[in-house]
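Notes to self after the call with IL:
- keep both proteins in one doc
- input above output, always
- annotate only the second one for now

Protein 1:
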Amino acid sequence: MCYAGLRNLLQGLTFSAKYYSKHNPPQTVCPFSKIAPKKCHILGCSKSACTHRTVPPGSILPCRFFSCKEGTKVPSKRKQDTSIITSDLLHKNLLKAEQKNWNNISPTYKTMTKRIKEKLEELHNLYTLISRSPRIRFGENVYFEENGCIFLGKADDGEGNAKILFSVEDLGFSDAFIQRIRISPDQRYMAISLKSENSEEATCIILKLGNLPVVEKVIPSVFSFEWAANDVLYYTAQKNLKCQNVFMTTFTYQKHTKLVYTEQDARFFVDLYCTKDRRFLTINSNSKTTSEVWLVDTRHPFESPALVQARTTGLIYHIEHRKDQLYILTTYGEPAEYKAILTDNYIHRINLDAYCRSYRNSKLMKAPVASSGKENWQLVYALERKTKLVDFEMFSDDCIMFLKNAGHLYLNVISFVSHSVQLIKLPTWACEFELESHPEHTTSTCYFQLSSPVHPPKRFAYSFKENNLIEQAVQEVPIITNCHTTRLLAKSKDETLVPITVFHNKNSKELHRRPLLVHVYGAYGIDLNMSFKEEKLMLIEEGWILAYCHVRGGGEQGLSWHRDGCQHNKLKGLHDLRACIRLLHQVGFSQPKHTVLAAASAGGVLAGALCNTDPALLRAMVLQAPFVDVLNTMMKTHLPLTIEEQEEWGNPLEDEKCMKYIKSYCPYQNIKPQCYPSVFITAYENDERVPLTGILQYVQKLRKAALDHASRTSKKGNWIPNIILDVQANGSHCDSSWEHSLNEVWSLYCAAPFPCN
């Protein structure tokens, strides 16, 4: 669990400081870098360890051998006691039994697998051809990645004239992809992180650019990194899913590396960010509820970092810089009703009435660099309660905010010149956005992409000079004309209205007879992943209805939405999910016998809980690396994430009420003999975030309960659910590979073999 830079911080400002929790999304989900296309895998979070042969520093590329053996983990040689040996033996026996069961079952789905694979390959090839990776602009130069190759071109020249600088294969990483790219201010050096799908850690490679790029340094187990100067790189080291040390390394005359910062509190995770104007590099130490930021002046990168504001419980903040002023995105200040949301004589161009009835949550404030304490913070702009700030970008004369309210996306442009704010509603079909990298803060245009689960990314540009939004027609994209988007509000047990986003084929008749796939997450203040996926489009074409339930515990409606669904409020998320599914059925979207519930990681808590309390609402449940044994996991403080997770689930070791509360909803603890839906679970043998042992024990207990119920109720036609576990030797907790897309659809049809169009 960890922070992933600016966007994660921004999400934290509206619902909680976002960790690399048991989810990772890849969307989504790991968006530190602003250059994260789905196809070329330039993402923003780095979490992979590699074991390849090494390119020695000073080697000229291309060369075909690479390694970072120093990043390989060495098994502990501590003497194990009898209880550990017994536990390991039980784990091995359960795993062996499940693997045998899987090997017996999987051949029966061979024909179905072939059909799904052919269809997905067709869609994958189609949208790969039209996809375009974001560009990184430095003056006249443009850098981009395609198919594992880094290209350099000119901004005003055709991409056909771009030259290849190097490829992943040149580095010996044929099975890895590029996660992050950072280019030094003078463009002499490039730092990249490489990750394989099977690991949680990344390797950072620094290259000296030129006609023949030279490998300067290889750093294993790196999470984030930023250039503080032309030849000075700061980076964070990752160990056991934690980042607590910041190092500085140099590449010119006196090459050296030294420790700059160490975080002592196990609840906090450290990452790095550079302000838009590159004046400061920020060291961000964050827990789920609290932030602390240190500034490194890039004009004096060897001086000690300066503290902005000491950590204060409940205070989350992120720093930008413009013209000797720090701009602070923060939750500072008690929520209070207000009549004006703008200060400094700003003119508001949108309807104020809705805002005057709401409450402040996240705010944009400012303070002088020399007096950065919170007592000097002045309000610039405040957001409406239940409005989520998805991302934020500072430019020389403007700042741009991407907002989400009631499922709709908005663009909020604040002009520091005209002292005005313009709110632009983005297309109604849009559910996700991707802000492209803009290294130059003086640019006059902001580029971004919009998408939805069934709409491939479309590129847009906002012109600060023209004050208008332009759709970029870079390449012809197939228009999704037969998919309808519906937004609903379900009334939960306490009368709270819970948003639902629904997609279905316009040509589908008798929707109450169509299969329904319901998605849920509801944890860590993280939104459901609603970016484009070919498998979702395939399901729509085959007549499925897709529903996304934005329950409490997630971040879709801001900070309070997360707080209302964590710790002692976790059951509210369960009530929300139940209300959503019932409403979907009531308005004619499918029925229980055609309904499948899908969840990943911590989303497995609510999905598994509903499976125990309301099994009659579902035909099947499909889970990926699910967190289903909350109580036992949170009792084990030796696990790498337990201490950090206490802010989400509570501390059952020290709080008896917390223990009883977790036990009341924990999926594993509440299994009982009853008629369960079918269940298909995909797990990963080396998952560091969700222990496989808990999943193995959950499946065993669930299968026994289902069989016990069947044996007690020997009615004619009594249905015994399929309970299937696929334990994959490869892949990681946050797998977003092509194989995962195939498995997702395949497992869906295995669990609930509905007829398709």
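Protein 2 (the one to annotate):
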Amino acid sequence: FFSPQVLLLACAEDLECIPGFQQKVFYIEKPFEFTEDQLVLNLKFDDCKGNNKLNFEVSNPDFTVELDGNLVALKNVSEVGKALFVHARSEHAEDMAEIFILEANEKRGALKEILKLEGNLGIPRQKRAILATPILIPENQRPPFPRLVGKVIRSEGTEGVKFRLSGKGVDQEPKGIFRINEMNGDVSVTRTLDREAIANYELEVEVVDMNGKTMDGPVRLDISVIDQNDNRPMFKEGPYVGHVMEGSATGTTVMRMAAFDADDASTDNALLRYNILRQTPTKPSPNMFYIDPEKGDIVTVVSPALLDRETMESPKYELVIEAKDMGGMDVGLTGTATATILIDDKNDHAPEFTKKEFQATVKEGVTGVIVNLTVGDRDDPATGAWRAVYSIINGNPGQSFEIHTNPQTNEGMLSVVKPLDYEISAFHTLLIKVENEDPLIPDIAYGPSSTATVQITVEDVNEGPVFHPNPMTVTKQENIPVGSVVLTVNATDPDTLQHQTIRYSVYKDPAGWLEINPTNGTVGTTAVLDRESPFVQNNIYTALFLAIDSGNPPATGTGTLHITLEDVNDNVPSLYPTLAKVCDDAKDLRVVVLGASDKDLHPNTDPFKFELSKQSGPEKLWRINRLNNTHAQVILLQNLKKANYNIPISVTDSGKPPLTNTTELRLQVCTCKKSKMDCSATDALHISLTLILLSLLSLFCKSF
């Protein structure tokens, strides 16, 4: 073996006793095999007080350290790992030593790489006044504190000067972890260190005079915390659930378990090995799965035949997985997690009807579900390998039937979607096929049990008579004489085998214009048909009739009659407006534009003819001019005095024969001032004159 002599803080004869291993790091070349009782190396531990009750512990149980410090193998060992850790503890001190086991090709340069001698750790390439070699401190040391861990040397002596230490862990957070004896350069740690919190400290040391003036330095002092196995492996990414298809080949990877260890990843403290502690359930084999101890991959180890979901006690397996550090050695710390493995179903079972023939009975004229077809399927009900898809493959030429899957029960719901007619066919035979949503695996096929027959019996019911045609239409002229025949309705009974009689009645006759002969179905009028009635919409009057058979109970059919009414000229035209106002001093004597309307239809409406009735008196006061087919204008021939005037105007339509209507247009002549029309004075004057005339007439009558 070889060791890094540069780790010595100074020449041995110049140093005081420092408790602990005199050399903390060793490098040995890995042999082909460590043989039993072979001396590996000698460790020197000194607590500076006689090593009372000294005890050694080795991380690998295949090795031991004898009281004289010799590290020996207890048996022939070929696989050790990359490092061994030796913990020494006496009544007054404890320390940790590391033995790195290197392959032959790793030997060159390993010392410099581990101890960071390439350039920046303060190991001088030329003579310097301050010698501050790296310090290694095991984590988790126990009290008492402070504990001496190293020493800084000044080649020019320490008289009249003092040492000063600074950096993170001294005067920077976390403060006060390290301190230096100002007079002799002893470096001490004041508390337990945790490598997982801080693994390295980069400090600076300098020499100052008694006034604080820097004499030498600063020089970098590196302190590294040596890892101890103080963190258990942890599974952080749970829950862990894996899936594997039933019938999978042996060695199929299911999932990967990965644990985390906060210890130094370059040491066995974080070298994890995986193991299955327990499997639940244990059937059909207690060892259904295997876990790769290094990778954590869980794979199947049973034959595809045993990985059959339909024969398993449960399709869910729970594995308790253990991760152990120290490469799986007995001294390693452990952590556990549960891996849940679900055996996924594949469609390796075809659905089968529970019986070959189903029966159903349905009344004619009725729609809806008539029978539920039941099937069995051994596949997983939560998958398309179980869900059934039904189809009618024979016996449904008229598409009177449909079948759908009940999503809760997986049954086939056979329905009548077009009413069946007993008189046409009293029996129906359907051939039904069932399949799965998912296709079957290649070596499985649908068999005879995947088809079934449904025998359907149609029951005869008393069906209502049917009108022919329906609706019925007829055209009649309005105002035909009461008692006129409109038409004769015709209804037949679908129940041709029952030989029933039919009677007719009025069901809905909104205007009360019609009647029907109950025996022969002749419809006649009981009142005048009026096209202008509010019961007529778009010239059509609608009535409903019933046809009732003699069954027990009787059945009823409804027929609709649409009567299209032709117009006759039976409505006189009307005039609007009937009131007009004009100023007594108006310059524009065009008083009002009149319009005419007629309830009848063309040609019994416009063009209208407007005329003034004969005017009394020697002078004509107004005239009327036709503007178009529906409007005319009244014009004053002179200004009139304030009064109310009634102008009789006649309007005649174009019907044959034409109809004329005479309407009085009331004309008020009013006083107009400042754009305001005042007609009240005129009314009052007119009323007053009337009262005077009535009073004079009364006096005249009393004198006789």
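Annotation: The two ends are 170 Å apart (CA to CA). Residues 1-15, 107-127, 682-704 have pLDDT under 50 and may be disordered.
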